[in-house]
Design brief:
28% of the residues lie in helices and 31% in strands. Strand 7 and strand 8 form a beta hairpin. It folds into 2 domains: 46 residues; 95 residues, Cupredoxins -  blue copper proteins (Immunoglobulin-like). The chain has 2 helices and 11 strands. Strands 1, 2, 3, 4, 6 and 9 form a 6-stranded mixed sheet that branches. Strands 5-11-10-7-8 form a 5-stranded mixed sheet, with no helix packed on it. With 160 residues, it is an alpha+beta fold.
Length: 160
Amino acid sequence: MAEKTRCEICDRTFKDEEGLAMHNSAKHPSSLEQEKSPKKMRSIWAIAIIALLLIGGGFIFFNDKSINGNSVQDSEIQKITLSFKNNYYPNTINVKSGIPVEIELDNSVRGCFRSFNIPKLGVSKRSSSPEDTIKFTPNQKGTFKFQCGMGMGTGTIIVE
């Protein structure tokens, strides 16, 4: 009976189990926590995994912007900004077929370069300001030439 009333940690002896229990709770509370810690750790890990799954799922389902080459899809519109550096810049643009395209010519684009044409796709528009965008939906895949109204400024649009 003496072994049952002996503290295994500090080797003190007690009259009964109640005395030993009071001693352990007062002097060695961390040893009692160790008995419970595997259950606590499993609970913490389960909560952490569930939280990560919820965050990851929310990111996937609620993220509506994706970047593709030099076009940005925003609410199913591929937006492209062209500027002028001795020619249209960027000189090659990539878009996806069947998704609307919106091309903005920034303030550096002047003169006949503001008349934007993609002859093989039937696109022809004069943009008087950056707010006046060129909108079209490419339904034909391939590589097409774009140019200014006089054919002096050129570039390539790749429809995938």
